[in-house]
Amino acid sequence: MSQVLTETEVPMPRTLLKTDWTLLLKRIREGRCTPFLGAGASYGTLPLGAAVAEAWAKEFGYPLEDCDDLIKVSQFVAVEVEDAMYPKEELAARFRNGGRPDFSSPTEPHRFMAELPLPVYITTNYDDFMVQALRERGKKPEQEICRWNSQLYSLPSVLDRLDYVPSEKTPLVFHLHGHAGIPESLVLTEDDYLDFLMAISKKENKLLPPRVQEAMANASLLFIGYRIADWNFRVLFRSVVTSLEAGQKRKHVSVQILPIGNATEAERKLKVLSYLDKYYQELNTRVYWGRSDEFITELRKIWEGTMT
């Protein structure tokens, strides 16, 4: 029988190696670090997708067991009401009427990210917290969405201006999966994700503007607020990281919660860690095992230590 220990008794590596921190800080100082922000970055301010999914599952009588899967439940709702825009409009309204992060908190992810000298931020969130945080810091961000469907083609874009170059003072915030202010832009249902992946896989469509492609190809990527258990993150992660040319790949960082629930078997935890570490190493990515706020706390401490 495996020995059962408390979590504090299990040797659980969670932070990065000193060499990883050093390289990450170097890339941040050079402006060659591109954050990818996921739902966990907005945790505590907006409802999690699982909570929205469970509420809709109850309201519309979702018949399957995975009632906390927003992608699948929203697809069911769209089919039930015979209106593909209904779940998008409902979710957009929830986000527009939601709260606002405490930007005075030193561990608030958007607040700290906005303090860094970075030119481009990419988010799969529907909120505009990154834009708000940048404005709080006196910067003048430009906000863009990915034009992944025909309803978005005609929208004006700052990236059409040849004189616009993202910078620390005028950074670009690119919404890869849409923004709540434009419900048509949301990548939400199963059909949306399939259409999005088909569209972005066609190189001739050029869904990612050159400025965004440069920010991914010429920088270390920093994924904050994602869960490896989410299949949409794994698809996003692999499609982004593996698309980079082998000779130009830089080391990346992903902040993750260990996906083993409340399990306390030391042997099992270490096996999961070993497997996932190998998985990420093949993609030249180091993992910080912990919450977004824990990572921000440690990054801030190290960042401020190097600036004094």
Write the layout of secondary structure elements.
Blueprint: H1 18-29, E1 33-37, H2 49-60, H3 70-80, H4 86-96, H5 109-115, E2 120-123, H6 129-136, E3 142-145, E4 172-175, H7 190-201, H8 210-217, E5 220-224, H9 231-241, E6 252-256, H10 266-281, E7 285-289, H11 292-307
Parallel strand pairs: 1-2, 1-5, 2-4, 3-4, 5-6, 6-7
Helix pairs in contact: 2-3, 5-6
Going across the major beta sheet, what is the strand order? Answer: 3-4-2-1-5-6-7
Give me the CATH superfamily of the largest domain.
Answer: TPP-binding domain
How many strand units? 7
Q: What name does the CATH topology of the largest domain carry?
A: Rossmann fold
Helix content: 40-55%
Mean of residue pLDDT? 85
Shape: globular
Radius of gyration: 20 Å
How many structural domains can be distinguished in the coordinates?
2
Q: Give the ordered list of helices and strands.
A: HEHHHHEHEEHHEHEHEH
Unreliable parts: 1-12
CATH architecture of the largest domain: 3-Layer(aba) Sandwich
Tally of separate helices: 11
Computed structural class: alpha/beta
